[in-house]
């Protein structure tokens, strides 16, 4: 379950942006209860703007033809330019790790990640650094660590796009729509299928997606859970926490979020990978292509001898 939760969690954050709930904003629709109407009687302006200010649990709209504001908000992240700092702490059995770094996103073809991490197993620890830069043509990487097999490398972004499309085609819900854009309705469906609850805290200005599996009868310790907290106005992630019983925990915090006007606002050098003098960058594109299985239904080329 824990692995599935992280997949859902990561997919929601990477493929989209804001949140919303329709509990109050559906007050004028047929079937709305009198209680709901009364609670939301003073929220008309918020609902008109696509959000709902009342605190409490809100429902996703997976059964509606129109995607929820939450889904639209999450999808909207892919169309914005922004940057933020992050800090991660994870434990799994005797192993542990923590990392901190910076993420910048100009557009899907221009982004960068720079982080430093420390991983431990018992009393042994190891430090490493990682830098990723997508410059519009290649995705470059630099791994700074004692056990790094390849220190500098690059992959064509066109191949990365193909790999993402291939993975998306195997998803139980359609990731992209007919025009190739991210499918907002699938966010609603994923939330509904996962059983996640969405709650808004107007006082704190947050939206929280949560999923919990209680401890089985007769067992001790914490159960399994995932909580994703977003800024209710911008829909940017504020924190992610996950617990896998006694086996492990994961926590990520995001701070110093800055929305840029566009790609140019980052400056010309923001997404340029600088290769140190004398360093050869290994192009892994063809190697990855050769390791990819042929598409289903594609006949293998016959060799003549």
What do you see in this structure?
By secondary structure, the chain is α+β, with helices and mostly antiparallel strands. It has one domain. Helix content is 21%, strand content 35%. The chain has seven helices and 13 strands. A 13-stranded mixed beta sheet has the order 1-8-9-10-11-12-2-3-4-5-6-7-13. A hairpin with a 7-residue loop joins strand 6 (138-144) and strand 7 (152-156). Helix 4 packs across helix 6 (184-194). The longest helix has 13 residues, at 2-14. The radius of gyration is 22 Å and the shape is globular. The N and C termini lie far apart (51 Å). The model is unreliable at 1-54, 59-63 and 296-305 (pLDDT under 50).
Helices and strands in order:
Elements: H1 2-14, H2 34-39, H3 44-48, E1 56-58, H4 69-76, E2 81-92, E3 95-107, E4 110-121, E5 124-135, E6 138-144, E7 152-156, H5 157-169, H6 184-194, E8 197-201, E9 206-213, E10 224-231, E11 237-244, E12 248-260, E13 282-283, H7 285-291
Parallel strand pairs: 7-13
Antiparallel strand pairs: 1-8, 2-3, 2-12, 3-4, 4-5, 5-6, 6-7, 8-9, 9-10, 10-11, 11-12
Helix pairs in contact: 4-6
Major sheet strand order:
1-8-9-10-11-12-2-3-4-5-6-7-13
How would you sum up the major sheet? 13 strands, mixed
Total strands: 13
Class from helix and strand fractions: alpha+beta
Total of DSSP H or I helical runs spanning 4+ residues: 7
Order of helices and strands: HHHEHEEEEEEHHEEEEEEH
Strand content: 35-45%
Oligomer: single chain
| Domain module tally | 1
| Rough outline | globular
Let me know the average pLDDT.
77
Distance between the termini: 51 Å
Helix content: 10-25%
Low-confidence region ranges: 1-54, 59-63, 296-305
How much is the radius of gyration in Å? 22 Å
């Amino acid at each position: 379950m824990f692995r599935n939760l992280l997949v859902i969690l990561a997919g929601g954050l990477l493929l989209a942006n804001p949140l919303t709930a329709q509990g109050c904003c559906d007050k004028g629709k047929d079937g709305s209860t009198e209680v709901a109407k009364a609670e939301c009687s003073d929220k008309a302006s918020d609902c008109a703007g696509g959000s709902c200010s009342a605190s409490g649990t809100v429902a996703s709209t997976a059964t509606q033809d129109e995607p929820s504001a939450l889904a639209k908000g999450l999808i909207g992240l892919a169309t914005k330019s922004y940057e933020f700092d992050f800090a991660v702490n994870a434990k799994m059995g005797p192993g542990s790790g923590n990392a901190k770094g910076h993420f910048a996103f100009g557009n899907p073809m221009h982004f960068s990640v720079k982080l430093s991490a420390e991983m431990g197993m018992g009393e042994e620890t190891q430090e490493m650094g990682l830098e990723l830069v997508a410059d519009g043509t290649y995705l470059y990487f630099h791994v700074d660590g004692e056990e790094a097999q390849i220190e500098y490398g690059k992959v064509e972004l066109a191949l990365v796009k193909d790999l993402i499309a291939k993975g998306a085609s195997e998803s139980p819900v359609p990731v992209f729509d007919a025009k190739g854009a991210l499918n907002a309705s699938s966010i609603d469906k994923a939330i509904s299928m996962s059983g996640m609850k969405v709650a808004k805290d107007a006082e704190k200005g947050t939206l929280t997606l949560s999923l919990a599996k209680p401890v089985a009868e007769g067992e001790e310790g914490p159960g399994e859970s995932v909580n994703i907290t977003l800024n209710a106005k911008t829909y940017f992630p504020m924190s992610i926490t996950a617990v896998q019983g006694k086996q492990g925990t994961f926590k990520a915090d995001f701070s110093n979020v800055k929305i840029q006007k566009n790609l140019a606002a980052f400056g010309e050098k923001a997404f340029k990978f600088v290769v140190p003098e004398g360093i050869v960058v290994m192009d892994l594109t063809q190697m990855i292509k050769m390791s990819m299985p042929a598409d289903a239904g594609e006949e293998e080329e016959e060799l003549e001898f």
